[in-house]
Amino acid sequence: SRIQQTMAERYRTPLGHFRHESGHYAWDRLSARDAGFAARSRALFGDERVDYGTALKRHYDVGPPLGWEQQFVSAYASMHPFEDWAETWSHYLHIIDTLETQQSFANERGLLDATRAAVPLPADVGFGAVAVVADFNRMMTLWVDVATLLNSLNRSMGMPDPYPFVLGQEVRHKLGFVHAELLALHT
Fold first, then answer.
1. Does the pLDDT value for residue 77 go beyond 80?
2. Are 175 and 88 in contact (CB under 8 A)?
3. What are phi and psi of 186, to 5 degrees?
4. What number is the average pLDDT over the span 18-46?
5. Which residues lie below 8 Å from residue 153, measured CB to CB, with a gap of 6+?
6. Concatenated DSSP letters for the chain?
7. Whether 104 contacts 119, CB under 8 Å
8. Helices 169-185 and 81-109 meet at what angle, rounded to 10?
9. Averaged pLDDT of the chain
């Protein structure tokens, strides 16, 4: 679409945008529920109190910093800590929803071995036990396999990768933080 081209985000969809905006809502709810949330978040995402307008202007005037891929899930995430949180939150929801769909389909068709089918997912989705914080690495291992399959299927059809992301260690730490904070909401 025109917006995807203008924003240089060919993967941006209405669902992805909704997930992103829900990340801003989640930030507000988590901050209101837990006085220590903002301080814990700053350790990974940066200080959200920096001037948003200045950060926005810099982002659109100069663009993302060189090497942004090492620290951020998207170029837009590099704009401001609030956007880093929202983009990471959105990405986490994207991963969980896709894994749940994959488990559901594979369970119906008997396509997954028991080890993969039982990878716990949060919030009572999936088919195994509900995830705990320690399940994050298993989820990420499964996600890398699923994303590789998605990209490979598209490539075999001559289409671009539907998942054009590489999740570096810092991004994985941020995703793990979102995972832990989301699970804390259910306790």
1. yes
2. yes
3. -95, 5
4. 94
5. none
6. -HHHHHTT-TT--HHHHHHHHHHHHHHHHHHHH-TTHHHHHHHHH--TTS-HHHHHHHHHHH-SPTTGGGT-SSTGGGS-HHHHHHHHHHHHHHHHHHHHHHHHHHHHHT-S-HHHHT--BSTT-SSSSBP-GGGHHHHHHHHHHHHHHHHHHHHHTT---S------HHHHHHHHHHHHHHHHHT-
7. no
8. 80
9. 86
- Enter the tokens of residue 104: 């559901």
Find out whether 19 and 89 touch, Cβ atoms under 8 Å.
yes
Q: What are the pLDDT digits (tens) for 110-142?
A: 666 666 666 777 755 545 567 888 889 999 999
Please name every residue paired with 130 in a beta bridge, in sequence order, or none if there are none.
121
Name the token pair of 47.
């200080």
The two structure tokens encoding residue 184: 């804390």
Structure confidence by residue, pLDDT tens digits, 79-106:
999 999 999 999 999 999 998 888 877 7
Token representation of residue 58: 């810099």
Gyration radius from the chain CA atoms: 17
- d(CA 79, CA 86) in angstroms, rounded, equals 11
Distance CA 177, CA 180 (A): 5
